[in-house]
Amino acid sequence: PRNAIHLYEGDLPDNLELGSTIAIDTETMGLNPHRDRLCLVQISSGDGQAHLVQFVPEHLGGRGYGHCPNLKALLQDSSVTKLMHFARFDVAVLQHYLGITLNSIICTKIAARLVYTFTDKHGLAYLSRELLGIDMSKQQQSSDWGSPTLTEDQLQYAASDVLHLHALWNKLEAMLIREGRRDLAQSCYDFLPARAKLDLLGYDVSDIFAHR
Amino acid sequence: PRNAIHLYEGDLPDNLELGSTIAIDTETMGLNPHRDRLCLVQISSGDGQAHLVQFVPEHLGGRGYGHCPNLKALLQDSSVTKLMHFARFDVAVLQHYLGITLNSIICTKIAARLVYTFTDKHGLAYLSRELLGIDMSKQQQSSDWGSPTLTEDQLQYAASDVLHLHALWNKLEAMLIREGRRDLAQSCYDFLPARAKLDLLGYDVSDIFAHR
Ligand SMILES: Nc1ncnc2c1ncn2[C@@H]1O[C@H](COP(=O)(O)O)[C@@H](OP(=O)(O)O)[C@H]1O
Ligand SMILES: Nc1ncnc2c1ncn2[C@@H]1O[C@H](COP(=O)(O)O)[C@@H](OP(=O)(O)O)[C@H]1O
């Protein structure tokens, strides 16, 4: 099959070569990182292969978050660009559960907000349809990602979130250059690690930059 | 008098030595940089002297914004730290009216938000009272700063906004270090030039980092 899905538990395998730009997404039990645990990390180098790392808690017989040196090394390697959609959330989750700080991030949501100004739709499904002609089913988005046995539909969904991100990025990057907003986008990406830290501290509700 | 106020029109004088950290504030006709013009820029090196640059439009016989090489050079000098309270606004105004990008910014409002978490009061008057025991009158804050002849009260008010900022900064910086949030604060300051650009583009209303 052109698109292959590889599922691992607790860490990436040794010696996986993923290149200089990796697409990343996460699935969690919900939208509050303090409450809702990280269940899955999806990674693709953009070659049609999706690498899925599932985290199973120790009390369910899994390895938990404590033994993922390969994944941590990859995520902390600042020579590797991490491509995400709405990175703000995934970065906070990864920081909270793996205890790492990510750098060299780029985000298709921020890029879309800076160039797709003629619409207020900047969701991944919308952008994939508009820019790539790809229809993504978002049906599994709010399914039970904490299940130790993920369904075939869940795996397909999780993979689809990273498989086309490089192609989407290429389109958005070209538009950023066209509109003269690439530097501004870069300044926003550069702030994402701090934005995620602030979110974990509660500054998602009271904006640190607000007057009141 | 211990505190001296120097008023200039259109630019700073030549050869003014202001050191490596300058306090800056601005007064405008209102809170919308696209609508409300920049009237006054206040600067202090923290030595009790306030340097006030008033901008009088050309149709009123003034020099307008076109001839302020000394002020622009100072503001664009990245070896000079620019200390402001709620820098987000002043940076946007200066960027818009003087056509310059400011760097090396620090902001007492952001610092206060990161350490004065036990209150939601982070106004300059409140912080000056709490941390320095200084009572600032905020009476002139919403006066007519576009008047070609500023009153003595206006000049005193404008000066007071920069005269104590270094002292306030020292207190807040010590608290940032105490609470282990100095790096996080720095990441926020670093984002301020982009935050100001985004504000001028209209991303003050629809947050660039928001999910929707
Ligand atoms: N308040 C919120 N509402 C919806 N999705 C949110 C969210 N905060 C973070 N997200 C994340 O943003 C992603 C959806 O982004 P978009 O709506 O732009 O396509 C979701 O990821 P998944 O698609 O991996 O579940 C979800 O986890
Ligand atoms: N929405 C807003 N409401 C009030 N002040 C605002 C504002 N946006 C920007 N400001 C600026 O923030 C400063 C007040 O900050 P604070 O309330 O923290 O003391 C004011 O400067 P001035 O004091 O120079 O007039 C004002 O110009």
From TrEMBL, chains A, B:
| Stored InterPro entries | 3'-5'_exonuclease_dom (IPR002562), RNase_D-like (IPR051086), RNaseH-like_sf (IPR012337), RNaseH_sf (IPR036397)
Protein origin, superkingdom? Bacteria
Ranges for the 3'-5' exonuclease domain? 3-177
CDD domains from the xrefs? RNaseD_exo (cd06142)
* One Pfam family from the record: DNA_pol_A_exo1
State what protein this is by name. Answer: Ribonuclease D
